[in-house]
Amino acid sequence: MIHRTINALVHVFGRLQGRYVVSPLDKERGDVPGWVMITLMTAVIVVLIWGIASTQLTDLLNNAFGRVTKQAG
Fold first, then answer.
1. pLDDT, tens digit (0-9, with 9 covering 90-100), for 5-26
2. Residue 33 — φ and ψ, nearest 5°?
3. Structure confidence by residue, pLDDT tens digits, 48-70
4. Are 47 and 1 in contact (CB under 8 A)?
5. Are 5 and 48 in contact (CB under 8 A)?
6. pTM of the model
7. Nearest to 32 by CA among 47, 48, 16, 45
8. How far is Cα 20 from Cα 72, in angstroms, rounded to an integer?
9. Cα–Cα distance between 17 and 34 in angstroms, integer?
10. CB of 35 within 8 A of CB of 55?
11. Spatial distance between the Cα atoms of 73 and 60, rounded to a whole number of angstroms
12. What φ, ψ does residue 62 adopt, rounded to 5°?
């Protein structure tokens, strides 16, 4: 399931990257599509990690906050 999802995302990002190629003559445009790709890929990675390990991450954060509040009090 995860393997198919990753393959689909790689395919979509590859197509988006090909669609937003900046011409060398268009120097004023900047690298906005590159930053959009980085932002989208980061969001997808966070969602995938959170979907796979949400209970473990929640327990980890609760334990960390619990230790901080016990030391403060």
1. 777 777 777 776 655 555 555 5
2. -60, -35
3. 999 999 999 999 999 999 999 88
4. no
5. yes
6. 0.44
7. 16
8. 51
9. 8
10. no
11. 20
12. -65, -40
Which whole-number Å values give the CA distances from 5 to 14, 32, 61, in the listed order? 14, 26, 27
Give the tokens for residue 59: 């327990």
Query: What whole-number distance in Å separates Cα of residue 52 and Cα of residue 36?
Result: 24
Structure tokens of 70? 């016990």
Token representation of residue 3: 């393997």
Instruction: At 51, list the tokens.
Output: 């979907």
Residue 19, token pair as written in the block: 């669609």
Amino acid at 14: G
Two structure tokens written together for 35 = 């930053």
